[in-house]
């Protein structure tokens, strides 16, 4: 069995990847959990009934692994990536550190699998979770009708900023109920996130944020095209998940029922769309789920060859960890 190194094993994404590995009957003996400067004796959960050691990344010999999955921050990835590259092993970058490198393919499993053959230095990346959440349901639609323009508004949970973001939401909510001041709990979001919506994800670069720019660039890189993309990102007071409204325009005229069937038959996607009260999927419904869920799928009569939908998914599991696992299987095939 291939040996798998998980860098960032104690982080939210790393833990989800370990969970998926365990659920797919990959032995803990074939997994190296790694963190920088990890003290001796540190352990992390591997499935429901097992714990594994977290090894010190600074001392790890990457030649022991067949593939390394970087689920760490971009800063840590950039620091340790050369060590993995030097050992000529396969690498999957989930951190975004290599996303702008044109020599490194960006893969959404089930959409552009063939691009993995172009991996130079045996390295690929996966896009941000919002991009996977939008593009995976559209894989067959793009193949048949060709995507021309995407306008999306994404509502992101605090887990996009890790444990610190989730803790800040919890602490603010608790203090609001206790009628206590929030001034000491506005370090991560800079404003109140509890019971609020913040239309800023990332730092501003001109009129848009770097996260909005990144979504735009990643969609074009995955699809290898020059389609138009406009992204709006906001934080909402939720712990896990992302909800995205997307308006899609295609280059060719389509049959709407065919579009619905193509999305429904895409692996890893579930369409639950009933025109009744509550006949849709919300953030609270998808925590821990592997699939991306689609609701409110309808024609967009304001533009030619257009439709729209609502997409929700567990950003850590369905969008990122699951994609990383599926890409790993492709890479090791």
CATH homologous superfamily identity of the largest domain: Dihydrodipicolinate Reductase, domain 2
Second-tier CATH architecture of the largest domain: 2-Layer Sandwich
The main pleated sheet reads as: 7 strands, mixed
- Average residue pLDDT: 95
Describe the structure.
There is one protein chain. The protein is 29% helix and 24% strand. By secondary structure, it is an alpha/beta fold. The chain folds into two domains: 137 residues, 3-Layer(aba) Sandwich (Rossmann fold), CATH 3.40.50; 184 residues, Dihydrodipicolinate Reductase, domain 2, CATH 3.30.360. The strands form three sheets. The chain has a seven-stranded mixed β-sheet, with helices on both faces. The protein is globular and about 60 Å long. The mean pLDDT is 95.
Strand-helix topology:
Elements (H helix, E strand, L loop, with lengths): L3 E4 L4 H12 L7 E5 L7 E4 L3 E7 L10 E4 L3 H13 L3 E4 L29 E3 L3 H7 L3 H7 L1 E10 L5 H16 L26 E2 L2 E2 H14 L4 E8 L6 E9 L5 H9 L4 E3 L20 E8 L6 E8 L1 H18 L1
Parallel strand pairs: 1-2, 1-5, 2-4, 5-6, 6-7, 8-11, 13-14
Antiparallel strand pairs: 3-4, 8-12, 9-10, 12-15, 14-15
